[in-house]
Write a structure and sequence with these properties.
Blueprint: H1 7-14, H2 28-36, H3 44-51, H4 56-72, H5 75-88, H6 102-150, H7 154-158, H8 162-204, H9 206-252, H10 254-262, H11 266-289, H12 292-318, H13 326-337, H14 340-347, H15 349-367, E1 391-398, E2 411-418, E3 423-427, H16 434-440, E4 449-454, E5 457-458, H17 464-469, E6 471-475, H18 485-489, H19 498-507, H20 511-516, H21 534-548, E7 552-556, H22 564-578, E8 582-586, E9 598-603, E10 606-611, H23 613-619, H24 622-631
Parallel strand pairs: 3-8, 3-9, 6-7, 7-8
Antiparallel strand pairs: 1-2, 1-4, 4-5, 9-10
Keywords: ATP-binding, Cell inner membrane, Cell membrane, Membrane, Nucleotide-binding, Transmembrane, Transmembrane helix, Transport
Family: Belongs to the ABC transporter superfamily. Siderophore-Fe(3+) uptake transporter (SIUT) (TC 3.A.1.21) family.
Main location: membrane
Length: 639
């Protein structure tokens, strides 16, 4: 319980003092600028209080523990006074010194030990409560935010950096725990400690209290200056660490290593990392050494305070100004030593509260986002009748949310019908709007005009989960998790049996390849499937979709990134997968969709031609022109 003047305490005080770990790591000006950029959220305090409403009893108990613990912290110095004056050096009625009063001294020592024990137990209890409540609120908030982001529409993620989203989930939500465990406890505890210490000092001797008040501001101001310098260096250190992390992520990823090796740039990457590492070392040394002379002075001052008090007390006693006992002097120096660091903590309270509010504001900003695509109040499941698999566009127009109002719409008055079981292909120049068609069918985006119907029902009247469960998507960019092949396949159906996995893999023409691996279906595919070839990854993606067994299959240029041999193997798997289900293929290579039942030619957001491969060639229009152009290229075989 005794608060000394040690080097560690001085260092902590210079960094902000009193309330444990600080929320911000930047210097005050930078931190205030960050706080000023936080969004303005109505009724923010009320909403913050709502997060802790379920923990009301624990919070009340915590506040009580903080108040009691802070008040108890000044009791030992007062008992020290009694130990000296009543136990060790008592005086009789005539003012003469008598021998130690062992009975009184024993009870005083017992009381002091009891206070230490109670304070320690209260401190453990308070730490457990604050850690439990703070982390439970943080955990619940993190899951709530993650769940909310899962419900956001696709356009939110196309316009928001992944790093920004991760920062909200990790840094901002992680800082919430500090609000309870540090900021609130610091405000309450330091306030009560400072008030109690001043009261105790006044009760002991008001003359010595006035002298102490003159010395304290000098120390507080000096420590704040050093703390600001250290905080600025800490911010630069954090930036350097971030840069080192970025270099690591860039160069030690599979793609980064391949790039460095292919251009023989390994040494330059090593040099870049070494340079940043030297910067980091220099900053770490500066951070450790900043203020060391000051800390030495602080230690000298804190150690000299008792001696100064002894001298001043001697002058007061010799001059007859005050009647000061030995117990009073010892108790006063003990109380005064407890005053500096809580006072430092209180001086930073306003900034910590602003920082806490900024953290909550950024979190609530995301929680207040409303998905632009939601289920209608009376949305229903996809009907499982004879129309299952029919896809219709009725005068559909679409413009991406971030597009200018006066720009050309991506789709303009598009109408078509694809019957159940039919194989339909969409072809045309790049940027014509083909992929947008595949976005509107599963309602990843909302049509700006007209209606999209699935199984005879407007997609806006269907539950999104039911709609998407009936649609399988195979895109050009196959995404596989760093897990086994079996785990990647079961992402479509977690309860699928091994036999069902094998059946799906056989249908996708990949089973024999998987079986040839030493670990078979337990083969780990590596980050983003880098241990597999492009054709193998694509066929695993097809098997994953087949395991889902959707009524409609969307193929978004699923073979455009493959070489000719891999394309043929994957195309055979796609043809097998398309049998018995409605298939919509977005194609760049016309040779892959020549066998389609109907081909739609899209130019500038409009369907300009439709028909079979033979019919469109006979027309001699856009399709025939594109086909002839591709047929002249050796990498695109003509049918």
């Amino acid at each position: 319980m005794h608060g000394g003047g040690g080097r560690g305490s001085a260092a902590r005080a210079a960094g902000g003092g009193g309330g444990g770990r600080r929320i911000g790591t930047a210097d005050e000006q930078t931190q205030r600028a960050i706080n000023a950029d936080a969004p303005k959220i109505p009724h923010l305090l009320r909403r913050i209080a709502g997060l802790f409403a379920a923990h009301k009893a624990a919070l009340i108990t915590t506040v009580a523990l903080v108040l009691v613990g802070a008040a108890l912290s000044v009791v030992p110095p007062l008992l020290t006074q009694r130990a000296f004056d009543d136990g060790l050096f008592p005086v009789d009625a005539s003012g003469e010194a008598s021998g130690p009063n062992l009975s009184a001294l024993t009870w005083i020592v017992v009381a002091m030990i009891a206070v230490f024990i109670v304070s320690a137990l209260l401190g453990v209890w308070q730490t457990w409560l604050t850690a439990t409540v703070g982390n439970q609120v943080m955990g619940a908030l993190r899951v709530r935010l993650f769940s909310h982001l899962q419900a956001m529409e696709l356009s939110f993620f196309t316009r928001t950096k992944t790093g920004v989203i991760q920062s909200r989930l990790q840094n901002d939500v992680g800082g919430v725990a500090s609000v309870l465990t540090n900021t609130v406890s610091s405000v309450l505890g330091n306030t009560v400690t400072v008030i109690s210490a001043f009261v105790a000092m006044l009760l002991l001797n008001w003359q010595l209290t006035l002298i102490a008040l003159v010395l304290l501001p000098v120390m507080v101001i000096a420590q704040r200056r050093v703390g600001q310098v250290r905080a600025r260096i800490a911010a630069k250190t954090q930036e350097s660490l971030s840069e080192m992390t970025a270099i690591t992520q860039e160069t030690l990823s599979v793609s980064g290593i391949l790039l460095a090796k292919s251009f023989t740039r390994q040494q330059s990457e090593i040099d870049r990392y070494a340079d940043e590492n030297r910067t980091q070392i220099g900053l770490q040394v500066r951070q450790q050494m900043t203020g060391q002379w000051f800390f030495a002075m602080v230690n000298i001052f804190m150690s000299a305070v008792p001696a100064i008090v002894y001298l001043l007390a001697g002058w007061l006693i010799a001059g007859g100004v005050a009647d000061i006992t030995a117990g009073t002097i010892v108790a006063f120096t003990t109380v005064q030593a407890r005053l500096l660091f809580p006072l430092m903590g209180l001086m930073r309270v306003a900034l910590d509260l602003q920082t806490s509010s900024a953290l909550f504001a950024r979190i609530f900003e995301y929680l207040d986002l409303r998905p632009s695509i939601t289920d209608a109040p009376k949305a229903k499941d996809v009907p499982q009748g004879p129309e299952l698999g029919r896809v219709e566009f009725d005068h559909v127009s679409f413009r991406y949310p971030d597009a200018d109002d006066d720009s050309r719409p991506t789709l303009d008055d598009v109408s078509f019908t694809i019957e159940p079981g039919q194989y339909a292909a969409f072809v045309g120049p790049s940027g014509a709007g083909k992929t947008t068609v595949s976005y509107l069918v599963p309602r990843l985006y909302e049509a700006s005009g007209g209606s999209v119907r699935f199984a005879g029902v407007d997609v806006r009247d269907l539950r999104q989960t039911s709609l998407v469960s009936n649609i399988g998507i195979v895109s050009q960019e196959t995404y596989l998790f760093h897990a086994t092949i079996a785990e990647n396949l079961r992402y479509a159906r977690p309860d699928a049996t091994d036999a069902e996995l094998e059946a799906a893999a056989r249908a996708a023409n990949i089973h024999e390849t998987i079986a040839s691996f030493p670990d078979g279906y337990d083969t780990v595919v590596g980050e983003r499937g880098y241990r597999l070839s492009g054709g193998e990854k694509q066929r695993i993606a097809i098997a994953r979709v087949l395991l889902k067994d959707p009524a409609v299959l969307l193929l978004d240029e699923a073979t455009s990134a493959l070489d000719t041999i891999s394309e043929r193997v994957v195309q055979a798997a796609l043809d097998d997968a398309a049998r018995g289900r409605t298939t919509i293929a977005i194609a760049h290579r016309l040779s892959t969709v020549a066998s389609a039942d109907v081909i739609f030619v899209v130019v500038s957001g409009r369907v300009v031609e439709r028909g079979t491969h033979a019919e469109l060639l006979a027309e001699g229009g856009v399709y025939a022109s594109l086909y002839r152009e591709q047929a002249d290229r050796p990498e695109v075989p003509a049918n």
